[in-house]
Amino acid sequence: MPARSLVALALAAASAARAADPEPQLAAPPELAGPVQAPLPPETLFPAPSVEVVLSLDVGADGRVERASLERGAGEPFDSAALAAAPTLTFRPARLEGGEPVPVTISFRVRFDAPPPPAPPPPRPVRLEGTLLERGTRRPLAGVAVEARAGERTLAAAATDAAGRFALEVPEASFRLVAAPPDHVRLDAPVEAVPGERREETWYLEAEPGGFVAVVRGERVQREVTRQVLPADEVAQVAGTQGDTLKAVLNMPGAARSAFGGGQLVLRGSAPGDSAVFVEGLELPLLYHFGGLRSTFAPRFLEAVEFVPGSFAPDYGRLTGGVVNVRVRDPAEDAAHGEADFNLYDAGAAAEGPLGKGWTAGAAFRRSWVDAILPAVLPSDANLSFQTAPRFWDYQAVASWRGEADKVRFLLFGSQDELVAILKRPAGDPAVSGTLQVDVHFHALLASWSRAFSPSLRQESTLALGLQGFETSVGPSLFFELDIRRVDARTTWAWQARPGVEARAGLDLQSAFYDIALDVPRPPKEGEPPTPLSTRPRVAARFSGELHGPAAFAEARLAPVESVSILPSLRLDYASGVRRWSLDPRLMVRWKLGEATALKAATGLYQQPPAPEESSSAIGAPHLLVQRSVQASAGLERAVAPGWDLDATAFHKWLDRMVVTNPAAAVDPSAPPYDNAGRGRIYGLEVLLRARLGERFFGWIAYTFQRSFRTDRPGRAERIFSIDQPHILTAVASWRASSRWTLGGRFRLVSGNPYTPISGSVYDAGLDVFVPVYGDVNAGRLGAFWSLDLRVDRTWTFDRWRFSAYLDVQNATNRENQEGWQYRFDYRERTPLTGLPVLPILGMKGEW
Amino acid sequence: MTRASGVAALGLAAAACAPQFPPRSAIFDLRVLAIVASPLEVGPGESVTLRAVPVTPEGETVVSESWTFCPFSAGAPVAYACAIPACEVPLAPAADGSVTADPSALALQCLASLGGGAPPGGVPSELPAVVEVVFRYRAQGSAGEDREAVQLVPLHTGGPPAQRNQPPRIAEVAVGGEPLPLSGGTAAAPLRPGGGVEVRVWTDPGEGYVDALGRPLQESIVVSFYATAGRFDAARASGPEGAATLQHEEVPPGAARALVWVVARDLRGGAAVAGPFAVPIAP
Q1: Chain A neighbours among B 243-272 (CB < 8 Å)?
Q2: Which residues of chain B lie closer than 8 angstroms to A760, CB-CB?
Q3: Could you check whether the bond before residue B85 is cis, i.e. omega within 30 degrees of 0?
Q4: Residue A667 and residue B122: Cβ atoms within 8 Å?
Q5: In this complex, is the C-beta atom of A279 within 8 Å of any C-beta atom belonging to chain B?
Q6: Confidence class for position A624, pLDDT limits 50, 70, 90
Q7: B129–chain A nearest CA distance, Å
Q8: Which of A147, A341, B177, B266 is a Cys-bridge partner for B219, taking CB atoms 3.0 to 4.6 Å apart?
């Protein structure tokens, strides 16, 4: 280690070695003239920081070392190194006063300094691989900037990927990790690591109020004058609806109020059968369990609900009312998630997650549970016992695959309602006796494929297979059995020829193959007051058949200037039940006046074939015409303030060729039971003021004024439609006070429904029933309905799961709203039939 | 499907919620218990005889009765109003209160009265194969109330049916366990406060018949109970053996007895009446 052995040299003393004469005096001692090289062996251990060896050197007159000996050693290897270095030393010789050089002997100290300790290596960096997830839901927080900081210094920075993951190389072991994802609490966590440590950690960040932000897949082009979209998060929070898929959206303007347990879809004054609910374009065969309790399509995979009360796009047809379309979301692709919930009506569970290779899948199931306790709470003297207490279940399963330009999805859903009850004694109508049995079920498989061939050409196609069954019986003689196998197909192609010119065209095919056997009283048509079941004409038949409804539609979108859209369209339908074609021309115009205002108008023809039971050659009238409706609407949309949107639409509908009961059939059973003699007119105004203030609040105020009239036959007086509700005011609000508490309310003020007064009765002695004597149809009107519903949600959030509970109080003021009349057996006395009293409904849910 | 299952749910709700009105089994005013027709179905040229069974609370009487006939009714939605009001003709009762008429003759007479013009109200110009003609009975009680009842009689215009519906038959009635004559009698067992008296009825089994789908079916005999005092625990029972208990409820002060009737029906137009049976009311 010569380089490390720095040799210091000092002259301790000098004496003339060979000065024989004392006279000459040494004027200058020898002076070291060159560097000292005294290498030490490698890895020499120093006993002290500095080691000295003292040599005795004879320095000749020429300055060279002639002899060296150890005068005071320090031990090996220092002594040897010093002695070995001595011959290499060169001096300027010592000189006498006269200047002549002289040899001398000197003591020479060689000092070995220990080499300085090596510089410590720089600390190894900490590798931190982390994941940011939303607390409770474990949803990844993507695109979030993450920094490692020491004081104000940023040591490293990165951004989370789609899975919420990030990686940092932090040069220090002690630092703070900082991230501030939007709508979540800020992350500022100290990290104490060991240098060079490789660490993996997951941080769960709680969402802050603002959770009502929902991603809604929207169409770029608005094809209808009025089309409201309610995202799933809002559907889940509307007070009084318990998160039901359909009940929330029916608080929009244009929808009539249904009584509790009544699931009628009455849009813009049209009869319930004139409107329909679709799931991704496939008509939902049964809207509600047991007629109105819960939607048969549970909201677990709900993305949004679209609500079009009238003047809908040509994609839809065979209807003269409105359309509700349920949009389904894809299952979660970030991780596996699940849910279990329990409420007054049912209990359910769901799971979803990625399958790999681009596939995601999920499934949900729920079942009512009231059948488990109903037999126990039913009084023993009740005239009713259950063999199968009322129960329902439904399921939804989704599998999706998404490629660069393609998307494939399979949606399987179904439902069943079942009930077997035994009437111990004949009821008020003695025809109702014995065993009551209801079994309603459906299953549907919907496969869809969409592809964007280019930025200007895209298509979406669906194929659906369905099974539907409806079996009910009352006693041994009244029964209805219907089995349907359905095939539905739809394809839509859109082509943007150039900016401002777009064309869409498609096919909408329906086929149904059915077997039916029935012996039932013929149900009354709208506007026909009900009479006891046993007094109605019986319809009895057993047959099989098929119905086909092919349709084609085309629509152009012309934008001569950027602010104007003109959408003319045509739809051609064939109804095999009546063997008739129908062609519906429609037109929609939209004109944007600046950024905040748009004017809109539409008109068109909407045609609807008679219901299968009306046009059946076996039990109906096969020569019926297709019902018609001419619809016109115009309105205004305006963003009145940040977060506030106003939508006002006036509409008018003319109805003709409406299917009504043929009075001749009451006398002559061979006469067609129905004809097309009915007409109608409907008009109204819908106003919607919708707010989304910040991210804590959503709500709306919806007001509808509408009148709906019918003329059952030429020459008869015009009458009011049976669900004519002139004024419908609904206010909905939901406020997320914190990440734990959400408060909501709904207030409704609605005109009472019309009813047909009863002036007396006639006793049908053969059937032992009293038959009411009705006055003018719908000449009476029930009192106004108003109700306040309140809802409070409490959420407990844990790192990996979340538990929430809600209390939904319907009719919180316990208002006695009249829903009808209850009559004595002979109709000579009556009392108001009121709706639900105050009804608190508790629900709870765990999500992970 | 929605409508039907909704009806089922509402039906259950109705069955579960009993109204706060007096039951149909309580005779608190003038009532028509039955109209007994013979035969129950007729062919061309055949006559039918009908007898109404009106009852009143004790102390009241029926003060007036009348009958009419209508060949073409517009059905239950209009309370069996006559489709051609001019064709609703009065019928003169016999001494026992019954009426007899030839429906086919009266129907043809109605069509003839139109003078060849198109019948109004959807009435066909020729008689259909089966017409349910309407016999209407009106009565007024001494308390001023009135009642209207109808009996529909199938008229087979192509000829009498091969197998004519027969009325049900009450075989036996026991009140408080004691068999009584079908025409009436007094039960030995009194109705005591807090107690009840069982009324049990035996009928012949219902007839077999073939429905419109060709299915062989059996009539369901339904027995109805009526009483002028007290309350039956059920207004109806299913035959061929049905029972209900008359309970000591809503008994008018001072009432010494309750008069009880039972009516058996086949729900195809046939009826049989037994009673009144007097049940003493213990003070």
Answers
A1: 263, 265, 267-271
A2: 79, 148
A3: no
A4: yes
A5: no
A6: very high
A7: 8
A8: B266
Residue A441 to chain B, least CA–CA distance (Å): 10
Half-sphere exposure of A664 (CA within 13 A, CB side): 19
Lowest mean pLDDT among A568-572, A710-714, B46-50, B208-212: B208-212
Query: Given a cut of 60, is residue A615 above it in pLDDT?
Result: yes
CB contact under 8 A, A426 and B238: yes
| C-beta neighbour count of B77 within 10 angstroms | 21
User: Over the stretch A493-515, which tens digit does the pLDDT of each residue have?
Assistant: 999 999 889 999 999 999 999 99
A427 Cβ under 8 Å from any chain B Cβ: yes
Quote the CA–CA distance of B102 and B109 in Å, as a whole number.
Answer: 11
Contact with chain B for residue A6, Cβ under 8 A: no
Residue B272 has pLDDT above 80, yes or no: yes
Residue A349 has pLDDT above 70, yes or no: yes
A428, A540, A668 member nearest B124 (Cβ): A668
DSSP string, A699-714: EEEEEEEEEEEEE-ST
Exposed / middle / buried, residue A230 (Cβ in 10 Å: 0-12, 13-18, 19+): buried
**Are B186 and B278 in contact, with CB atoms under 8 Å apart?**
yes
Least Cα separation, residue A275 to chain B (angstroms)? 13
Task: Show residues of chain A in contact with B165, CB under 8 Å.
Answer: none
pLDDT computed for residue A182 by the predictor: 87
The neighbour count for residue A482, using CB atoms within 10 Å, is 19
Scan residues 665-724 of A and list those with Cβ closer than 8 Å to B: 665-671
pLDDT at A28: 82
Q: Are the beta carbons of A658 and A678 closer than 8 angstroms?
A: yes
Burial of A484 (0-12, 13-18, 19+ CB in 10 A): buried
* pLDDT per position as a tens digit, A20-33: 455 667 788 888 88
Chain B residues touching residue A667 (CB < 8 angstroms): 72-75, 83, 121-124, 128, 131
pLDDT above 70 (res B3): no
Least confident of A372-381, A666-675, B97-106: A372-381
Our CA-based measurement puts residue B50 at a distance from the nearest CA of chain A, in whole angstroms, of: 11
Reduce the secondary structure of B146-197 to three states and give it as a string: EEEEEEEEEEECCCCCCCCCCCCCEEEEEECCEEECCCCEECCCCECCCCEE
- Residue type (1 letter), A796: W
Among A285, A529, A531, select the one facing B1 at the smallest CB separation: A285
Distance CA B200, CA A13 (A): 150
| In contact, A351 and A389? CB cutoff 8 Å | no
Please report, for residues A134, A137, A141, B231, the alpha-carbon distance to residue A206 in angstroms, rounded to integers and kept in the order given.
6, 9, 11, 66
Is 70 exceeded by the pLDDT of residue A43?
yes
Round to whole Å and give the CA distance between A62 and A90: 9
Write the DSSP assignment of B115-144 as a string of letters.
Answer: TTSPPSTT--SS--SEEEEEEEEEEEETTS
* A444 interfacial to chain B (CB closer than 8 Å): no
Average pLDDT, chain A: 90
Q: Which residue has the higher pLDDT, B114 or B4?
A: B114
Provide the pLDDT for residue B142: 96
Q: B9 — contact with chain A (CB < 8 Å)?
A: yes
User: Are the beta carbons of B67 and B37 closer than 8 angstroms?
Assistant: no
Tell me which DSSP letter residue B77 carries. G
B21–A542: do the CB atoms touch at under 8 Å? no
- For residue B122, list chain A residues with Cβ-Cβ distance below 8 A: 662-668, 671
What is the mean pLDDT of the segment spanning A446-456? 96
| Residues of chain A with C-beta less than 8 angstroms from the C-beta of B72 | 667
Whether residue A786 contacts residue A812, with contact meaning beta carbons closer than 8 Å, is answered with no
ipTM of the complex: 0.94
Q: Which of A329, A352, A351, A336 is nearest to A245 (CA)?
A: A329
